[in-house]
Write a structure and sequence with these properties.
about 190 residues, alpha/beta, Rossmann fold, 5-stranded parallel beta sheet, 7 helices, disordered C terminus, oxidoreductase, NADP, NAD(P)-bd_dom_sf, Sec_Metab_Biosynth_SDR, SDR_fam
């Protein structure tokens, strides 16, 4: 039995930049209910949700299509922490009528450092946060969303989607705390 209502998407790091661009397409072009995740800037996240709502109304007016409008929400969570990811996914699915069809893992974190000064880049707390946010968090997010994505595929085969974005900082030396360790002659060449 199909779950009524529009498909539900979650976009981490979704209040600005690439995340916001993806959320716009999902919300306005594909008609999905979208939850964006943010960590620190509630004002920007709420303004973006309002922008999506206004754009939907301007495209669909006040007729029946507008009455059945997708739901747009912003949820604060630090997605470098596993328990926050689990909460974020559960709140998104619950708020989406018991479904989650699309997950975009877009969040990333770094602290810019002086790339030419090795001593500047040995802050262990920065390394740990960078590794948790950029390496472990997408795995935790996929694991937390797995049940919901499997249910989506049971409703409609091939409909569930999980996408993870990454920064070009993984291929170019740019002063990132994580890049400093990874960028060597062989890794650098493999990015091109």
């Amino acid at each position: 039995m199909a779950t009524p209502g529009p498909k539900v998407a979650l976009v981490t790091g979704g209040s600005a930049g690439l995340g916001a661009a993806i959320a716009r397409v999902l919300a306005l072009d594909l008609g999905m209910s979208v939850t964006i995740n943010y960590h620190g800037n509630a004002e920007r996240a709420n303004a973006f949700i309002q922008e999506l709502q206004e754009a939907w109304r301007s495209r669909h007016g006040t007729d029946e299509a507008a009455a059945a409008a997708p739901v747009y929400r912003a949820i604060r969570a630090d997605v470098s922490k596993r328990e926050e990811i689990v909460r974020l996914v559960e709140e998104t699915a619950t708020g989406g009528g018991g479904r989650l069809d699309v997950v975009i893992s877009n969040f990333g974190w770094t602290r810019l450092r002086n790339f030419s000064d090795l001593d500047d880049g040995v802050d262990e707390d920065d390394w740990d946060r960078c590794f948790e946010a950029n390496v472990k968090a997408p795995l935790w997010l996929f694991h937390a969303a797995k049940r919901w994505l499997e249910e989506g595929n049971a409703r409609e085969a091939g409909s569930a989607v999980f996408v993870s974005t990454a920064s070009t900082a993984g291929c170019k030396p740019s002063g990132s705390s994580l890049v400093r360790l990874e960028v060597g002659p062989s890794v650098f060449r493999s990015c091109y």
